[in-house]
Amino acid sequence: MNGFPGGPPPRLALSLGDSLAGMFAAQGALAALYRRTVTGEGQVVDTALTESCLAIQESTIPDYDVGGVVRGPSGTRLEGIAPSNIYQSANGSWVVIAANQDTVFRRLCAAMGSPELATDGRFANHVARGRNQDELDKIIGEWAGKRQPEEIIETLSQAGVISGPINTVAEVVRDPQLQARGMIADHWDERVQRNVKGPGVVPVLSESPGTIRNAGSARPGQHNDEVYGGLLGRSAQELETLRAEGVL
User: Fold this and answer.
1) Strand order in 162-165's β-sheet?
2) pTM of the predicted model, to two decimals?
3) Does 247 share its domain with 198?
């Protein structure tokens, strides 16, 4: 489903399956702990990367089972859902605008100075807009292309229309909202011996917010004493001997 119609499916540039499997495993562990509290019995929590990705495919399987629909790639938009796309601003950067619900679309038209679009037969309701996505995207794209991204977002925010910038990671790190929420956090990194920026803790808990001890990246051999000495019971003298012999 990724990519553009007629093109090859691109590889996602993030390890999504790894993260999802970890999240589902944590969810399963909590459910298993609750059952243990109730029944006194434990159980195996089994998650897989492929299955974790499958679980977030929304209605693709029912669409196929009920209607024989095989959803294909749709680029930056959702087919039949309009307007919900990214549009290039005057400075070349991109802004996402989502106004596919009828009342929100009317607000978008008014904010663009074209209220008549809301009653135009091509765009007057959800189904009509879905059938005329290309034409509608062109109209909105022309409006956005004459304005700076800040103006677009401010105008639409005032009108009650969902919009936002497509940020680079450099812009994400400087984002005041993310900073205020603690989502750009310091992680102590042993390899470079300083704090490095990384994501904050999600979810945010009001009474017991999470903290970050370190970046999770260690120097080679950093935990040798802890593992060989603490976990495996080797003495300090044995560890020194192993180091001298090049084992550690």
Assistant:
1) 84-88, 94-98, 162-165
2) 0.80
3) no
